[in-house]
Amino acid sequence: xxxxxxxxxxxxxxxxxxxxxxxxxxxxxxxxxxxxxxxxxxxxxxxxxxxxxxxxxxxxxxxxxxxxxxxxxxxxxxxxxxxxxxxxxxxxxxxxxxxxxxxxxxxxxxxxxxxxxxxxxxxxxxxxxxxxxxxxxxxxxxxxxxxxxxxxxxxxxxxxxxxxxxxxxxxxxxxxxxxxxxxxxxxxxxxxxxxxxxxxxxxxxxxxxxxxxxxx
Length: 216
Description:
eight-stranded mixed sheet, 216 residues, 11 strands, alpha/beta
């Protein structure tokens, strides 16, 4: 079993990853500014209040862990202004991991980041840019920083996120020719992340995750 640091653990995919990792028997250090509010009870859970933009917080959180899951998010209201969280946090995290000797990183970005942007359908392209453009430009910088590192990274690019329980019925698209947008439950993304931690089937690769394709 691994000792996993989940950054962005208080909500969304981060929280679902905490749940899935605990269910699989891993030890989890749940890192978030609001970590104290995580309403889970498990002897393998450590709540770690911290700021992903604080070098001391990140360095302390890396002590003794085997793998890092980076699952950051920004509120919808922040999408229409400058977005720097993803790249700034990664600029802090990557050298801190290298210094601490923690080599495994699973980073959640999104479909439309990096070289998957070309796979966005023509009907989706304009609204995607209008709403998510600033955030995804920053996620591009995040991915570049990770790719330039010496870490054993996996980039996880989920499609349009939905709620609800894990279904186990999702597709892992690991070839650029297969990339397409679609719906996927956050809990299914978490299940993939936990499985990837155990198997390491996509080290130094980017994958797109969907359950149901969207109309092109």
